[in-house]
Description:
By secondary structure, this protein is α/β, with parallel strands linked by helices. The protein has helices spanning 4-20, 49-63, 81-90, 103-111, 145-154, 169-180, 196-204, 215-223, 269-284, 286-295, 304-324, and strands at 37-42, 69-74, 97-102, 122-137, 160-163, 189-192, 210-214, 227-232, 256-263, 298-303. The protein contains eleven helices and ten strands.
Amino acid sequence: xxxxxxxxxxxxxxxxxxxxxxxxxxxxxxxxxxxxxxxxxxxxxxxxxxxxxxxxxxxxxxxxxxxxxxxxxxxxxxxxxxxxxxxxxxxxxxxxxxxxxxxxxxxxxxxxxxxxxxxxxxxxxxxxxxxxxxxxxxxxxxxxxxxxxxxxxxxxxxxxxxxxxxxxxxxxxxxxxxxxxxxxxxxxxxxxxxxxxxxxxxxxxxxxxxxxxxxxxxxxxxxxxxxxxxxxxxxxxxxxxxxxxxxxxxxxxxxxxxxxxxxxxxxxxxxxxxxxxxxxxxxxxxxxxxxxxxxxxxxxxxxxxxxxxxxxxxxxxxxxxxxxxxxx
Length: 328
């Protein structure tokens, strides 16, 4: 089991080394030479979510003095699972590589029936989360979450629900809402789009009844009064947001999309601890807060064994929900 005390001890040593100008070597064997270069695999296209994560990793690690540079490699395909497979195969035993990962990858593994999962890598940490907003046009007859639920119970097909990819986070939320409301998730009229911009355009254009996406995708239009938010998927009220959670409106649904980082498979416990120390130093640095605020990420840090357990729990939840949607 990973010792949190050792992680903090190593992270403190890294921070002190960076402050004094002394570059640490992170591992034995194929260790990153000091000064070091890190390979970061972004399992998505340039400009996408995984790419943003990889570039934030590089920015903060360099600001903290942990590395001198990073080589970011984009490997898009199948919700990140193509990159996952290549990372597991090509970086086996390496100590100079990270993989950006997260909730989208976990759901894609299940929905696409991919014969590999995150256990093929070394789990390092959950880093950040984002909650979703359920929204309707300002002119909608739905004034509350209760109105939406009533319409779904009456005729699920009459409500066109816009969101991201089939089997992705928005679709999972739709399935969870349906189950919590006593509705067969298979009867939902879910309309997938490739991104938040398309979702917003469809909503404002009156082409769909409602939509779900990350709060940051809709926040400007919500504050401008162009769209109405019926609820957020956070587990508790959020500072600066007056919209109540779904749970506080008697619909027991909580959902966060989350981003994480994996290490290569078959590394030693000592190498894993060194990587965990790197992660701990990264998320503790002021530059990480800057990146998080810029990208709309909230603190959701969970390292080591606790993160590994969390992934298993999430996979079970996603599998159960996707099965109810007829996708697993």
